[in-house]
Design a protein that fits this description.
This protein is α/β, with parallel strands linked by helices. The protein folds into 2 domains: about 160 residues, Rossmann fold, CATH 3.40.50.300; about 100 residues, GMP Synthetase, Chain A, domain 3, CATH 3.30.300. It is built from 9 helices and 9 strands. The strands form 2 sheets. It has a 6-stranded mixed beta sheet, with helices on both faces. A 3-stranded mixed beta sheet has the order 7-8-9. β5, α4 and β6 form a beta-alpha-beta unit. The chain binds guanosine-5'-diphosphate and magnesium ion. The site of magnesium ion (MG) has 5 residues, from α1.
Length: about 300
């Protein structure tokens, strides 16, 4: 949307969304993009990869990076992968948004802040989920949060209810460096549709299985074919044990069927075409702690 007649300069830069799991980073990403790119859930391990979301306005291109939350006990290879992804994002960012939840301050928040302090980055504190509170309560929460660090700014928002998002975007515009756009104006991510498909399936697994969800579950797209009439997707759901396979399939296949239906409907809406989706559940023990398998399943450094 570069207006050739206007003298206004173009701005472009990376904005890192950081914070412990579950504060609403992925929800905020979807809200600012006006489109669902990232999967979200109440479960802490929802985001596993670094995901770029691009918002282009006249003269401003914002490159948001959604990250897995930083974990404190990174025992398995997949947790170390997630931590590394979040940490390296801090270094490439032009601006860091540190997200917390209004009225809550945990040891995990403290640990994230400690990393930010070590990197000496200017940090904007974004206090999310303000829809849970009255104005009076909120004022107290903001006061407490502001004492944690010398933040550049503090912005209270509700990512889910779309409150104060314009104010946040205005602040980001002020801080973006002058630069040409890095991406095409109509591009919204650097991720493939295959990646988005596997994430959509994983999201449905998480919401349908709830507490029963095996921690080590991943989705691999085995086949993706677009024809004129429809898109054909074959996906494998990998679990670590036979018992987990039973949970994912459900009684007479009921769980798997529900996952397949919900994922198919959402993907068809996104692709604006009918989708034929086939799901298989397979067991590969120890994948979450195996470097080679992690790369095969798409957990690669980007
Ligand atoms: N009440 C409320 N809930 C929110 C808000 N933003 C996110 N959530 C919820 O918080 C949970 C975690 O969100 P998610 O974006 O996955 O968090 P992430 O782990 O930081 O990416 C989900 O259930 C969201 O619906 C908000 O502004 N208000
Ligand atoms: Mg997330």
């Amino acid at each position: 949307m570069t207006d050739k007649n206007s003298k206004e300069l173009d701005h472009c830069g990376y904005i890192a969304l950081l914070g412990r799991p579950n504060v609403g980073k992925s929800t905020l990403m979807n809200t600012v993009l006006g489109e669902k790119l990232c999967i979200t859930s109440r479960k802490p391990q929802t985001t596993r990869h670094r995901i770029l979301g691009i918002r282009t306005d006249p003269h401003y291109q914002m490159l948001f990076i959604d990250t897995p939350g930083l974990h404190q006990n990174a025992k398995k290879a997949i947790n170390r992968y997630m931590n590394k992804t979040a940490s390296s994002t801090i270094k490439e960012a032009d601006l860091v948004l540190f997200l917390i939840e209004a009225g809550v301050w945990t040891d995990e928040d403290e640990a994230v802040l400690k990393r930010l302090k070590n990197n000496r980055m200017p940090v904007v504190l974004v206090v999310n989920k303000i829809d849970n509170f009255s104005d009076d309560q909120l004022l107290g929460h903001l006061q407490t949060a502001s004492e944690k660090y010398d933040f550049e700014n503090i912005v209270p928002i509700s990512a889910r209810k779309n409150r104060n998002i314009n104010q946040l975007l205005e602040l980001i515009r002020e801080k973006l460096p002058v630069s040409e756009f890095y991406y095409a104006e109509d591009q919204i991510t650097d991720r493939s549709i295959q990646f988005i498909s596997s994430e959509t399936i994983r999201e449905k697994l998480m919401s349908i299985l709830g507490q029963e969800l095996p921690y080590s579950i991943t989705v691999e797209i085995e086949k993706y074919e677009e024809t004129k009439e429809q898109t054909l997707i074959n996906a494998i759901i990998w679990v670590e044990r036979d018992s987990q396979k039973g949970i994912v399939i459900g009684n007479k296949g009921s769980v798997l069927k529900k996952v397949g239906t919900q994922a198919r409907i959402e993907l068809a809406r996104r692709l604006k075409q009918s989708v034929h989706l086939e799901l298989w559940v397979k067991v590969k023990s120890g994948w979450a702690d195996n470097q080679n398998l992690l790369s095969q399943f798409g957990y690669k450094e980007k």
